[in-house]
Amino acid sequence: MPHLFSPMKIRELSIPNRIWLSPMCMYSAVDGMPNDWHFAHLAQYAIRRVGFLMTEASGISPTGRSTLMDTGIWSSDQAKAWSRIVDFVHSQGSKIGIQLWHAGQKGSTTSPWQGQDYVPPSAGGWQSMAPSEVAFGKLPTPHALELEEIKAIITDYRNAATHALSAGFDVVEIHGAHGYLVHSFLSPVTNRRSDQYGGSFENRTRFVKEVAVAIREVWPASHPLFLRLSADDWIEGGWRVGDSARLANELLPLGVDLIDASSGGIKTDVTYPIGPGYQVPFAREIREVSGVPTAAVGLLTDAKIANEIVTRGEADAVMLGRELLRNPNWALNAAIELKDVIPADELTIAWPNQYLNGRPKPKPDW
Ligand SMILES: Cc1cc2nc3c(=O)[nH]c(=O)nc-3n(C[C@H](O)[C@H](O)[C@H](O)COP(=O)(O)O)c2cc1C
């Protein structure tokens, strides 16, 4: 069996394969509640054998969201709505995690298709917040968080993890990438604080460590905790991949089991060398240096290349975003494309019974 289709065990969780759905905001919720859109969107991937699904970034509080249309996980009503989706995903044999989010400096905007403009409190929005008063692009200067406010946000993360557990999620992931709150504490580009949360590496990483510890107080030892990092800011003097590897190593004893290695997003006007698999070297370096498992993400579209990434040990899994929007059958097709290494009878593993009539018939040479 190709490594892409081999199961992966983390703590007590067994994930059926290494094809994972990358988190993607849908901007389709009201009051943070996931609805039929989120059910249909996520269910399609469980039916089509994506082994692990990460939900879209979900607010740990109403003001932790980026838009008013983002999902949340700060209430029991939201947990209940999520549980319907979680149960269905489990019924198909896939596993599912929720990405816990505080949007920080990028909070209170409209959706991308509405221009991502600032929504002021007078229009139902809120003042954005960050470690320091550093504005992101055209957005207004955020409020610099007081120590008491930082403490309250850490408590919000813990409460969100409690709700995630009651919804039945297998994994929680801290969103520590793309210029949102956790990332803006890590990066010297946005963190100008002179107290215990700013300055040295130790101080800039204090917030994410306290968040991980708070989540682990309520998140069971049987369940994995992931962290999505912008592994590198692509800016001289910014957060670099070496920092990510060091952080991964220091977070392991605090209960963080896997680094999902994205990059960038801390400020505008940065040039990224975007191309197929351009972030894979980050997943590889973090994995090699820290010994912590990783997921690779970013412009991964080819089944053979994805299989090579996990077979060579550059990452433990691949996360696909836009390719799965274009092609929800990616995992089913990958099983066929990699046919030369899967015995014909095992191909049925990848196809749900209800869809078997649509599966291309095994050829004599398979
Ligand atoms: C519509 C859309 C929404 C996204 N929302 C999130 C999100 O909620 N959380 C996150 O960490 N990344 C988010 N991303 C980034 C993706 O998870 C992924 O890292 C990125 O698209 C690169 O992977 P790809 O080339 O396979 O799409 C989003 C991307 C897209 C296209």
3D architecture notes:
With 366 residues, the chain is of the alpha/beta class. The protein has a single domain (3-358), classed as TIM Barrel (Alpha-Beta Barrel), CATH 3.20.20. 32% of the residues lie in helices and 14% in strands. It has eleven helices and twelve strands. Flavin mononucleotide (FMN) binds at residues 22-25, 56-57, 99, 175, 177-178, 228, 262, 297-300, 320-323.
Outline of the structure:
This protein is α/β, with parallel strands linked by helices.
- Strand arrangement within the widest β-sheet reads 3-4-5-8-9-10-11-12
Number of strands: 12
**What helical percentage do the residues reach?**
25-40%
Structural class category: alpha/beta
* Domain unit count: 1
Shape: globular
Low-confidence stretches are none
The percent range for strand residues is: 5-15%
Q: What number is the mean pLDDT? A: 95
Superfamily at the CATH H level?
Aldolase class I
The CATH topology annotation reads as TIM Barrel
Taking the sheet with the most strands, its summary is: 8 strands, parallel, barrel
- The CATH architecture term is Alpha-Beta Barrel
Cofactors and ligands present? Answer: flavin mononucleotide
Cofactor: FMN
Keywords: Flavoprotein, FMN, NADP, Oxidoreductase
Domain NADH:flavin oxidoreductase/NADH oxidase N-terminal: 4-337
InterPro entries: Aldolase_TIM (IPR013785), OxRdtase_FMN_N (IPR001155), YqjM-like (IPR044152)
